[in-house]
C-alpha cells in the first residue's frame, strides 16, 4: 500500500550513512522515508537481490521488519538477511559480492553507543559491496527532501531467528547464517594451519574483546572453533542490544578490561578488539599498543607473508588524516600510495579499479580488496598470520619496522559534542589563516603549505572538497583539523598531529610529549581552549 508522508530535513548521510538517535528513528515515517528515498535512487531495484543486516543494536529487528515490508511492496526480488538480523559490516560487504546482489542495507551506528537512548544508523552499500559513493548519498538526500509517499506491505512479522527461505508477496526472503560465509572467506586468505600452531604454543596467549557487539559470534567461530582460542580468552563475546552500556569503540579509552590485561605482568602476547559493527580493530601486544596508522604500514610491509597477498600489493591508500607511515613503506616497495578523504567510501573506486590492495584509516580501520569495507577480524587474522610466520613479539615487530622505516609519532585529540557554533568559530578562524600561513615559522617549524583538503578521484574524476584543514610543515610534520561526520549531537572536532622521527634513540618516547610542541602550535592556530571552552580533549588516541 501507498502511505502519505512528509519530508524530514535531517536525512543527509554523513561519513558513514545516516546516524541519529534511536528516538529519532522511532518517529513515525522517519525510517520509511529514508528507505524509500534509497529505493527511489535504484532504477534496477525491481526483481533485484538486496542483503540486509545490522550490528544487533537496539531497534535492529524492528527496522529490519520495516525494510522487509517496504522491499516487498517495492517489488524487490530477494532479500538475504542475517540470522536474528545480525551481520557484521564486512560480512554484508562479502555477501553482496558473493551473491551478485544489487546492494545491501546495513543497520548500524558502528562505534556510537546503542540502546533506547543511544544511536542507530542506516547505510546503503552498492553492488561492489562498498559504501555508496557521495553522488548516490547526495541523490538520496535530495529525494528525501521531496518525498510524499512510500510503499509498504501489510504483512505479519517475518521470523528472523531461523534459517529458512520463504516468500512474501512474490519476494523471496532468505535468512542466512551470519558467520559461515565470512569465516570461509577468512580461511581462504590466511594460513589457518600456521595460526593454529601459533595459538597452541604455550608461550602465546591472546585475548580478543568483542565489546559485547557484533564480532562475538564471528570470533567464537573463527578464533575459537577454527583456530583453537579458548573461550575465556574471547571476552564480551555475547552481543548485547546496548553493548553493555559502553561505547563499542576499540581504543585505549573504551576497551578498558582488555587494556588492563595487556598492560600487566601477565600480559598475553597478543590482544585485539573490534567495534559495534565489526569493521574496526585495535591491535595490542604485551605492554605495547600499535597505532592504527602503524598497523597499516606494518601489514603493507609484511603482506607477502600471507597467502592471500603472496604476489604483492597493487598499491596502498590511506585517509588524509592517517599518518604517513604507510607512505614510507610504499616508497620502499615502489608502490603507489593514494591519499583519500576520511570515510571508507573513497577507497571503493581505487579497489574496484585494481589500483590498491590494502588501505586504512587512523580511526582503527584497515582493509583490503577482499571486501569493500574495513574489516576488524581480518586485520586481527592478518596480524596473527604475520606473527605466526615471524615468531616475533608484537613489540619486536613494531620496533624492527621503525628501525627500517622510521617512526611517525601520531595522536588524535577529539573534542566531542561541542556546540555547533563554537566549532564553526574554530573553523572560520582556521580558514582565515590559510592564505598567509605558508612560510610562517612556528616553534622552529616552517609551514610549507596550508589548505582545506580536496580530493580528485583519479578513477571517476569526481571532486570532494572541504575534507579537513591541513597545516603541512617542511619537516614532514602535519596538523589537521576536521569536523566529525558520524556524531549525532552537536559537533565533534578532531585534531590530528604527526611528527616523523628517524633517530632510533628516540623511538621509545612518550607520544604526547614528543608531539607537545605541535599540540601547542595547534592550540595557537585554533584557539581551542578559548573557543571550545574545554581545557583538553575528551578522547585522546
Ligand atoms: C569516523 C572516522 C572515520 C571512519 C568513520 C566510520 O568518521 O574518523 O575514519 O571511516 O568514523 O567508521 P568521522 O567523520 O566521525 O571522523 V565506523 O566504524 O563508525 O562506520
Ligand atoms: Co564500525
From TrEMBL:
Gene3D superfamilies per record: Alpha-D-Glucose-1,6-Bisphosphate, subunit A, domain 3, Alpha-D-phosphohexomutase, C-terminal domain
One Pfam short name: PGM1_C_vert_fung
Residue ranges that the Swiss-Prot or TrEMBL entry lists as coiled coil: none
GO CC terms, sorted: cytosol
Occurrences of domain Alpha-D-phosphohexomutase alpha/beta/alpha (ranges): 11-150, 181-284, 293-405
One Gene Ontology MF term: phosphoglucomutase activity
Organism annotation: Leucothrix pacifica
Reactions this protein catalyses: alpha-D-glucose 1-phosphate = alpha-D-glucose 6-phosphate
Keywords per UniProt: Carbohydrate metabolism, Glucose metabolism, Isomerase, Magnesium, Metal-binding, Phosphoprotein
Name of this protein: phosphoglucomutase (alpha-D-glucose-1,6-bisphosphate-dependent)
CDD domains (alphabetical): PGM1 (cd03085)
Amino acid at each position: 500500500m501507498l502511505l502519505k508522508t512528509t519530508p524530514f530535513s535531517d536525512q543527509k548521510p554523513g561519513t558513514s550513512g545516516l546516524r541519529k538517535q534511536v528516538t529519532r528513528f522511532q518517529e513515525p515515517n522517519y525510517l520509511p522515508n529514508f528507505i524509500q528515498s534509497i529505493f527511489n535512487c535504484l532504477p534496477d531495484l525491481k526483481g533485484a537481490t538486496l542483503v540486509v543486516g545490522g550490528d544487533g543494536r537496539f531497534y535492529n529487528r524492528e527496522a529490519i521488519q520495516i525494510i522487509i515490508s517496504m522491499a516487498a511492496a517495492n517489488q524487490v526480488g530477494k532479500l538475504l538477511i542475517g540470522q536474528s538480523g545480525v551481520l557484521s559490516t564486512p560480512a554484508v560487504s562479502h555477501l553482496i559480492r558473493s551473491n551478485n546482489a544489487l546492494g545491501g542495507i546495513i543497520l548500524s551506528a558502528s562505534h556510537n553507543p546503542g540502546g533506547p537512548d543511544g544511536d542507530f544508523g542506516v547505510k546503503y552499500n552498492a553492488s561492489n559491496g562498498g559504501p555508496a559513493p557521495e553522488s548516490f548519498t547526495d541523490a538520496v538526500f535530495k529525494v528525501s527532501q521531496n518525498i510524499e509517499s512510500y510503499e509498504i506491505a501489510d504483512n505479519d512479522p517475518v521470523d528472523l531467528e531461523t534459517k529458512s527461505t520463504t516468500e512474501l508477496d512474490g519476494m523471496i526472503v532468505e535468512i542466512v547464517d551470519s558467520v559461515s560465509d565470512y569465516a570461509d572467506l577468512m580461511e581462504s586468505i590466511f594460513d589457518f594451519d600456521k595460526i593454529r600452531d601459533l595459538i597452541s604454543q604455550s608461550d602465546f596467549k591472546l585475548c580478543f574483546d568483542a565489546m559485547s557487539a557484533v564480532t562475538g559470534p564471528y570470533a567464537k567461530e573463527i578464533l575459537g572453533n577454527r583456530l583453537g582460542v579458548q573461550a575465556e580468552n574471547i571476552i564480551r563475546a555475547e552481543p548485547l542490544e546496548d553493548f553493555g552500556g559502553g561505547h563499542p569503540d576499540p581504543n585505549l579509552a573504551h576497551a578498558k578490561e582488555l587494556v588492563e590485561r595487556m598492560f600487566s605482568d601477565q600480559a598475553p602476547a597478543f590482544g585485539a578488539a573490534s567495534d559495534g559493527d565489526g569493521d574496526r580493530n585495535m591491535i595490542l601486544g604485551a605492554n605495547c599498543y600499535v597505532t592504527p596508522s602503524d598497523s597499516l604500514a606494518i601489514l603493507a610491509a609484511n603482506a607477502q607473508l600471507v597467502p592471500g597477498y603472496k604476489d604483492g600489493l597493487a598499491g596502498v591508500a590511506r585517509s588524509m588524516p592517517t599518518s604517513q607511515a604507510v607512505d614510507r613503506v610504499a616508497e620502499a616497495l615502489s608502490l603507489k600510495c593514494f591519499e583519500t578523504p576520511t570515510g571508507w567510501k573513497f577507497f571503493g573506486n581505487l579497489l574496484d579499479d585494481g589500483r590498491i590492495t590494502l588501505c586504512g584509516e587512523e580511526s582503527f580501520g584497515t582493509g583490503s580488496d577482499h571486501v569493500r569495507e574495513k574489516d576488524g577480524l581480518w586485520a586481527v587474522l592478518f596480524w596473527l598470520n604475520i606473527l605466526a610466520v615471524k615468531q616475533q613479539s608484537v613489540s619486536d615487530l613494531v620496533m624492527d619496522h621503525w628501525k627500517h622505516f622510521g617512526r611517525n609519532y601520531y595522536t588524535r585529540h577529539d573534542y566531542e559534542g561541542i556546540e555547533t557554533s563554537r566549532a564553526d568559530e574554530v573553523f572560520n578562524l582556521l580558514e582565515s589563516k590559510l592564505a598567509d600561513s605558508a612560510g610562517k615559522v612556528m616553534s622552529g617549524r616552517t609551514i610549507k603549505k596550508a589548505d582545506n583538503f580536496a580530493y580528485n578521484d583519479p578513477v571517476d574524476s569526481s571532486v570532494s572538497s572541504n575534507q579537513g584543514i591541513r597545516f603541512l610543515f617542511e619537516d614532514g610534520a602535519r596538523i589537521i583539523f576536521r569536523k566529525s561526520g558520524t556524531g549525532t549531537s552537536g559537533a565533534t572536532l578532531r585534531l590530528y598531529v604527526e611528527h616523523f622521527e628517524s633517530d632510533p634513540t628516540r623511538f621509545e618516547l612518550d607520544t604526547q610529549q614528543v608531539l607537545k610542541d605541535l599540540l601547542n602550535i595547534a592550540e595557537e592556530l585554533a584557539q581551542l581552549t578559548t573557543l571550545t571552552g574545554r581545557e583538553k580533549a575528551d578522547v585522546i588516541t
